[in-house]
Design a protein that fits this description.
The complex is a heterodimer of chains A (about 200) and B (about 80). With about 200 residues, chain A is an all-alpha fold. Chain A is about 65% helix and about 0% strand. Chain A has two domains: about 80 residues, Rna Polymerase Sigma Factor, Chain: A; about 100 residues, Orthogonal Bundle (Arc Repressor Mutant, subunit A), CATH 1.10.10.10. Chain B has about 80 residues and is mainly alpha-helical. Chain B has one domain. In chain B, helix 1 crosses helix 2, helix 1 packs parallel to helix 3 and helix 2 packs across helix 3. Classes of the chains: A mainly alpha (about 200), B mainly alpha (about 80).
C-alpha cells in the first residue's frame, strides 16, 4: 500500500533499513553480472529505484528481500535490453520441470558426491561453479543456500510459484554438483554418483 | 517413512520446509537408518559448504558514497 513520506522520513528509512544491506546487494549484483563495474551500475540503479519507490515499502518489513527483488527486476530488464531477446531464455525448461514437480516433494534424481570432496573444495572453485550456472539457477542458489531465504520469500522475490522454487532449486543444486564433480575429478578424486 | 520417501523429501527437510509431522518422521528415520543418515549429512555439508566458502567481497566505502551521491543527484 502506498504511503506518503516526507524527505526526512525517506532518508531515515534509506539509512536505517536499506543501506545496511548494501554488502549483500553488491555481492548479488556481482554474481548476476559477472562483472564488477557493471555490478556497481546495477547497485546504483537498484538503490535509486528503491528510493524512488520508497512510499511502497512497508517500514520494518523485510527490506533485504524487497531490495533484492528490485535488483533482480532491474537486472532482468537490463539483460533483456542488452540481449534484445525475450527474458525467458533460461526459464522455459524450468517451468516444464516445475509442472512435473508441482504435485509433491517429488524429486526424482540426485547427484551425490562424497563428503570429503566438499571438505576439499576451495572457495574459488565453488564461486566459479556458481558463476557458471545459468542466471536463474545462480539466483536461486544464492537466495536459498547463501542468503538463507525461505521458499515463500524466494517465490515473492523472483515472482514464481513455490513449486517452481522447489524444482528450480533441485535442478540448480544438481547442476552445481555436476560442475563441482568436474573440479573434484581434476584434483584426482573418485566420484561416487548414485540415484535416489 | 521409508528410505524412498525420505530421499524424496531430503532437500525440503534440510531447508526446513516440511510440516512439523514430516520433519519428525524424517528425524526418527535418520536415527535408525545409517544410509539415509549418511546421505543427509552429505547434503547438509553441501549446503553448508556453499554458504561458508563462496567468495564474498566487502564493499568499499567509495562505492557506498557513490551510491549515495548518485541518489542525491538523481532525486534533486
Amino acid at each position: 500500500m502506498k504511503q506518503e513520506l516526507d524527505k526526512t522520513e525517506k532518508d531515515a528509512i534509506f539509512e536505517k533499513e536499506f543501506l545496511p544491506h548494501i554488502d549483500s546487494l553488491y555481492n548479488f549484483a556481482i554474481f548476476l553480472e559477472n562483472n564488477e563495474e557493471i555490478a556497481k551500475d546495477l547497485l546504483q540503479e537498484t538503490y535509486l529505484r528503491a528510493y524512488k519507490f520508497i512510499n511502497y515499502y512497508e517500514k520494518g518489513t523485510n527490506a533485504k528481500a524487497w531490495l533484492i527483488r528490485i535488483l533482480k527486476n532491474t537486472f532482468i530488464n537490463e539483460y533483456r535490453r542488452r540481449s534484445k531477446l525475450p527474458v525467458q531464455i533460461d526459464f522455459e525448461e524450468t517451468y516444464q520441470q516445475a509442472d512435473e514437480d508441482e504435485a509433491g516433494e517429488g524429486t526424482t534424481q540426485n547427484v551425490d558426491l562424497r563428503q570429503e570432496i566438499y571438505n576439499n573444495l576451495v572457495g574459488d572453485e565453488i564461486t566459479k561453479a556458481v558463476n557458471a550456472l545459468p542466471v536463474d539457477y545462480r539466483l536461486i542458489i544464492l537466495l536459498c543456500d547463501v542468503e538463507g531465504f525461505k521458499y515463500d520469500e524466494i517465490a515473492k522475490i523472483i515472482d514464481v510459484p513455490i513449486g517452481t522454487v522447489r524444482s528450480r532449486l533441485h535442478r540448480a543444486r544438481n547442476m552445481l554438483k555436476e560442475k563441482l564433480k568436474d573440479y573434484a575429478a581434476k584434483r584426482g578424486y573418485t566420484i561416487n554418483e548414485t540415484q535416489a | 517413512m521409508n528410505c524412498t520417501e525420505v530421499a524424496s523429501r531430503l532437500q525440503l527437510f534440510i531447508d526446513e520446509e516440511l510440516i512439523f509431522q514430516d520433519m519428525e518422521s524424517i528425524r526418527k528415520h535418520l536415527q535408525v537408518c545409517p544410509d539415509c543418515e549418511k546421505r543427509f549429512q552429505t547434503e547438509k555439508l553441501f549446503k553448508q559448504t556453499l554458504k561458508d566458502k563462496i567468495m564474498k567481497r566487502n564493499i568499499e566505502s567509495h562505492v557506498v558514497d557513490g551510491v549515495k551521491d548518485f541518489i542525491h543527484n538523481s532525486s534533486n
